[in-house]
């Protein structure tokens, strides 16, 4: 709709695509000091077939002088795993899709810097609309201007999402597909959990829950809230939610995390998944092992020195064999160190096997 071709110019285009579930306002700025704010960022309504709604979209020019913005609507056609919605490339035409139900009363506005303009709109839900969730967006677009040979034309879009829930019998089926950590071995107690959830129903849902972390002795050592920002999943889409856990105290050994996720509105359901991981603080473990090895060597040398001194006090002559004893002691010291290292390694491997 808004395309231009410029000779010897660079066209820079940036889009701000909001996450489902955000509230408040959104603004965008670019390298040339342009900034616009659109309120509200999300319009979330429960509607009946045949119902009409009216509202106002407020656009504020925050910076960059007088600007002209164009208003259009587009359908949300999917969602990336991180929750970012994807949009149609062109304006809505299909009367069965939500964007065709949304009618802004203005298709363009010119706003002075620091001023705001209200854009009334109406949403007409068809009488034969099927129950379920529908998603679209208002797009506030600034066209790229013709660029000079030394500059670039800059354009951008800001999307205000529209989530419509048409009443009627719906499906709330969801599948807690995967629960995993970003790695299985950590050297510090800072763990990132990932939960992949499929929305197999006909409405968008916002799963919530708790992740409980226990140590290898079964003691609860931490708990974090799952999807604290109330992010949503579109119907027939999946999404990966990230949740981090940071433990303040000392952590060592095998840990287990249990995620209990609650979803559904009319009928609450809970699904649970578990994952295990290891935390081994190498620095602290290295210090402890080093101290133990040094202590054992000190004990070995101390015992040998005590025996030799005791033999001398008893009148035994140990000097003729001093060279032999010296060589033997060096060999025995090496063997002792090797045995200690082997013992520590076997102990560590045994601990992993025992608790896995």
Describe what you observe in this structure.
- The chain has 356 residues and is an alpha+beta fold.
- It is 19% helix and 44% strand.
- The protein has three domains: 10-166, Immunoglobulin-like, CATH 2.60.40.10; 174-279, Immunoglobulin-like (Sandwich), CATH 2.60.40.10; 282-355.
- The chain has helices at residues 282-313, 322-355, and strands spanning 10-16, 26-29, 35-39, 42-47, 52-63, 67-79, 85-87, 102-104, 108-111, 116-124, 132-142, 152-166, 174-181, 185-186, 190-199, 208-214, 220-226, 237-246, 253-263, 269-279.
- Strands 1, 4, 6, 7, 9, 11 and 12 form a seven-stranded mixed β-sheet that branches.
- Strand 6 (67-79) and strand 7 form a beta hairpin.
- Helix 1 runs antiparallel to helix 2 (322-355).
- The protein is elongated, with a radius of gyration of 33 Å.
- Residues 1-25, 147-153 and 322-326 have low confidence and may be disordered.
């Amino acid at each position: 709709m808004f395309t231009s071709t410029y000779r010897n110019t660079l066209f820079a285009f940036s889009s701000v695509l909001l996450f489902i579930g955000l509230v408040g306002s959104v603004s965008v700025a670019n390298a040339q000091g342009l900034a616009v704010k659109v309120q509200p960022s999300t319009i979330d309504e429960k509607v009946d077939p045949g119902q009409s709604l009216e509202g106002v979209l407020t656009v504020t020019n925050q910076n960059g002088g007088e600007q002209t913005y164009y208003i259009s609507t587009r359908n949300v056609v999917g969602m990336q795993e991180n929750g970012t919605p994807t949009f149609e490339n062109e304006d809505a035409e299909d009367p069965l899709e939500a964007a065709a139900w949304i009618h802004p009363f203005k298709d363009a506005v010119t706003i002075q810097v620091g001023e705001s303009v209200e854009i009334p709109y109406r949403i007409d839900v068809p009488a034969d609309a099927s129950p379920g969730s529908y998603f679209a967006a208002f797009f506030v677009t600034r066209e790229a201007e013709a660029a000079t040979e030394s500059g670039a034309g800059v354009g951008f879009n800001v999307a205000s999402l529209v989530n419509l829930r048409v009443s009627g019998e719906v499906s709330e089926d969801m599948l807690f597909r995967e629960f995993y950590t970003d790695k299985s071995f950590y050297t510090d107690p800072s763990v990132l959990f990932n939960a992949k959830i499929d929305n197999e129903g006909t409405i968008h849902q916002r799963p919530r829950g708790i992740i409980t972390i226990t140590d290898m002795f079964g003691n609860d050592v931490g708990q974090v809230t799952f999807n604290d920002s109330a992010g949503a999943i579109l119907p027939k889409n999946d999404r990966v939610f990230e949740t981090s856990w940071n433990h303040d105290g000392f952590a060592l050994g095998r840990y287990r995390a249990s995620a209990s996720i609650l979803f559904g509105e009319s009928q609450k359901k809970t699904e649970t998944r578990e994952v295990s991981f290891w935390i081994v603080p190498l620095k602290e473990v290295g210090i402890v092992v080093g101290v133990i090895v040094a202590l054992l060597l000190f004990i070995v040398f101390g015992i040998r020195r005590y025996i030799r001194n005791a033999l001398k006090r008893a009148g035994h002559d140990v000097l003729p064999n001093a060279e032999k004893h010296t060589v033997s002691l060096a060999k025995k010291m090496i063997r002792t160190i090797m045995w200690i290292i082997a013992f520590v390694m076997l102990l560590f491997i045994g601990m992993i096997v025992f608790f896995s």
